[in-house]
Amino acid sequence: KNKEKPSGKSAYLMKKDLHLHIAVCEEHDFIFYNRFDIEQKEDFLRYTMTVFKELNLKQEENQLIIFGDLNVENVYFKELYQYIRKLSFGSRGSHLAFGYKFDEILEHQYPDVFSSFFCD
Questions:
Q1: Is the pTM of this model over 0.90?
Q2: Which of 10, 22, 28, 100 is paired with 84 by a 20 to 30 Å CA distance?
Q3: Could you tell me which of 94, 84, 89, 87 has the C-alpha nearest to residue 109?
Q4: Is the dihedral of CA 104, 108, 109, 110 positive or negative?
Q5: Using CA atoms, how far apart are residues 38 and 15, in angstroms rounded to an integer?
Q6: Are strands 29-37 and 87-89 parallel, antiparallel or unpaired?
Q7: Is residue 53 scored above 60 in pLDDT?
Q8: Strand runs labelled E in the chain
Q9: How many angstroms separate the CA atoms of 49 and 20, rounded?
Q10: Cβ count within 10 A of residue 18
């Protein structure tokens, strides 16, 4: 079964500690990136929603792919889900294979570390 390729704009979000990174792509073109400092819990949602509004992303239609230190029980995730319905967690990709000890790490965590293997 073929996976559908994303059409239109997709947003990628990574929360790591008190930093929020958001990138947006349209088809295969990179159209936006910014890093935001999160001082309060409300900053996370405000920055994300501002990016959606400014780039004309539709909360019900455009995909938001999440990486970093979030999970479904996390307060940040729960806030996002109230406003953006097409949330999913990113993955390492099937082209990266590691030993069984890495199975305990969620697929969407530490993308910066796992991506460093492409630099060799």
A1: no
A2: 28
A3: 89
A4: positive
A5: 9
A6: unpaired
A7: yes
A8: 9-16, 19-26, 29-37, 63-68, 87-89
A9: 12
A10: 12
Q: Which two tokens stand for residue 63?
A: 């995909």
Residue range 45-58: mean pLDDT, rounded: 96
Place of tokens 């995909």: 63
Q: Cα 11 vs. chain centroid, distance in angstroms?
A: 7
Paired strand residues for 39: none
Q: Who has greater pLDDT, 32 or 94? A: 32
CA distance 49 to 83: 8
Among candidate residues 70, 28, 27, the one with its CA nearest the CA of residue 45: 70
Calpha distance 94→73 (Å, rounded): 26
**Residues 120/35/11/49 CA torsion (nearest 10 deg):** 170
* Cα end-to-end distance, the chain, whole Å: 32
81 token code pair: 């889900």
